[in-house]
Amino acid sequence: MSDYNNKTAIITGGGSGIGRQTALSLARKGANVTIADISEEAGEESVRLIEELGRNAIFVKTDVSNVEDVKAYVKKTKETFGSIDMFFNNAGIEGKVTSLADYPEDIFEKVVDINLKGAFYGLKYVIQEMLQNGGGAIVNTASNAALDGSPGVSPYSATKHSIVGLTKTAAGEYASQNIRVNAIAPGPTATNMMDRFTQGSEEVADQVKSGIPANRYGTPEEVANFVTFLLGSDVNFTNGAVYPIDGGITSV
């Protein structure tokens, strides 16, 4: 517990799925947690679950595409807990499933605003605080769609490729100042986003699973366990890496 005890983490998209499970994983290890999420109901529920574990948490309603909201979750965390030691830059949306030539421009812009701009704003303002604090650990959420093409979700894939670029660049810029920046690339995971991808169809879900060597979706808990590991000091020499968590998809 000592590695995380009384340290502070910010988690964007912490109201559900991988974000919530990571918040709970860090809290079990003793961390204070800020939940930044667009959904007040979901965010407050994550806080309640953390407090049930006897740990401290706050919720900051956040649209990550709004730079003032990003500044607000950074400021509120610093005011409440005194420092920012860990950052899970996780919030994102999948957008619409359709071919590139037919993709609606307004939805393309929304995906870029949330997935790319939101991640950039988070990195920018959290890193500023970590520099004042003597360092920290960051994990960005990319996707296995960042490692290959992903037909039907071109803006999602493009923004997740961009997360890889931001991760490697930030790692190179700040490694000498004790800031680590890594990324995860989850494959199909049992979250609400995956349900939206498959539109709730068991047939489509089975088709997706058939393309996974493990023959199943990952779980949010499995991803959260690895994020927690990457945020800890046991891997202090690990920086600028992108880790698939996809049941073997990228191995074939």
UniProtKB/TrEMBL annotation:
Coiled coil: none annotated. It comes from the Bacteria. Its EC number is 1.1.1.47. InterPro entries: NAD(P)-bd_dom_sf (IPR036291), Sc_DH/Rdtase_CS (IPR020904), SDR_fam (IPR002347). Keywords: Oxidoreductase. GO terms for biological process: bile acid metabolic process. It holds the Pfam family adh_short_C2. It is an enzyme of class 1 (oxidoreductase). GO terms for molecular function: glucose 1-dehydrogenase [NAD(P)+] activity. Belongs to the short-chain dehydrogenases/reductases (SDR) family. This is Glucose 1-dehydrogenase. It comes from Salibacterium salarium.
